[in-house]
Amino acid sequence: MNWQGSMVYRNSWVGSDKLGLDRNYRIALLDDTTSFGRSETWIAQNTVNMRVNKDWSSHLQLGFTQLQNQITELSTAQREFGLTNRMYLANWRNQHTLIENSAEKRHWHIYWGGQGRHETVARREDSYANERTMASGFLETDAQYHDLSGQVGFRVEHYDEFGDHTLLKAALAYQLLPDLTVRVSGGSGFRIPAYTEQLFRFFGNPGLKPERSTSGEVSLDWLPVDTLRITVSGYYNRYDNLITQAYSLDGPIRFPGIPGPTTVNIEDASVAGVEVNTQYTGSNGRDAGFSYTFSDNKDLQTNLELPLRPSHLARLWGQQRLSQWPIIVWAEAVIRSSTWNDATNTLPIEQSIQLNAMVRYAISKQFGLYVRGENLTNTRTSQFYSNNMPGTMVFGGFQLSL
Known about the structure:
Blueprint: E1 2-21, E2 27-53, E3 56-73, E4 80-101, E5 106-123, E6 129-145, E7 148-159, E8 163-177, E9 180-191, H1 195-199, E10 211-225, E11 228-248, E12 260-281, E13 286-299, E14 304-305, E15 312-321, E16 327-336, E17 339-340, E18 348-349, E19 352-362, E20 367-374, E21 393-400
Antiparallel strand pairs: 1-2, 2-3, 3-4, 4-5, 5-6, 6-7, 7-8, 8-9, 9-10, 10-11, 11-12, 12-13, 13-14, 13-15, 15-16, 16-19, 17-18, 19-20, 20-21
């Protein structure tokens, strides 16, 4: 048996904006030099792993998270806004080994367990409070017989606010050649709105419904040479009441009925596409990779594009470890195609290219210095209406491992 525990605390302060009318008479985030935001986060977790016998292992995780956000606007009569969100988590997972023979590439495992989650929320500006509980149980199995492997399972979730839901998943993989594997997977999903999506003043919508989804994916994993891996995937996702941020006629929680930024449900939506990933690992200290995603994102009732989802997204990166010096040079370029702020496709977001880079100098195995630059192309294209994109940033620091 072994035990692991950790705790993370973070406290940050940042300048904030306020909601108001812009020059186009739309609700937008406006600069306000007197506004600021604070965020405090506590995360604690304890994990116990126990070997009950040679064929049965058990895993128990207990966790606690507290997120407190506060926005202060000195220029308005209502000066303070924010949420305090707490979550208590218990996660139990067991594994039984029925067959284990790695030499013959055969195994059969069974997994079972459950999860409990309790959340509370309090809103600062009007003392609103709420709580909700989720309990679930699951049963899964995976097996391998030579070059064929598969997984199947189901999960039953109970919400005190949203009732009972049964979720299914299945996957199959077959190694056609030593360097070529085909995979097929599918399943169903259910997601309740987060408290911040319902209640936060900038994007909150208390009328959000839970999101339901079904998905399927087919992929090929190919290693043409030892140093190169190529993965090609095709996927299809169907959503009922897709939860997404958008610029909407309904507007944010503070301005109901006035167009503005908020979170909405898309009643009937689909996301289908192709994803390509390549990764090269060189013997000369040079690594590189490329990824590209094409997605057809549709509101199936209007046949318009979904908001905030570019049809094309590409990333190219490279890294060089110098042989003469303990220096690593890394850079990446991220390319996004144009998309829309709103579900009615009237407020465009332009395409953008961003370049990021970093140089790290390792003084020892435990200590290193680095300089990092972000958005070196100084791209100012906003990724959401009225949200400004920060320009070029260069900063440095050190990394210490104990």
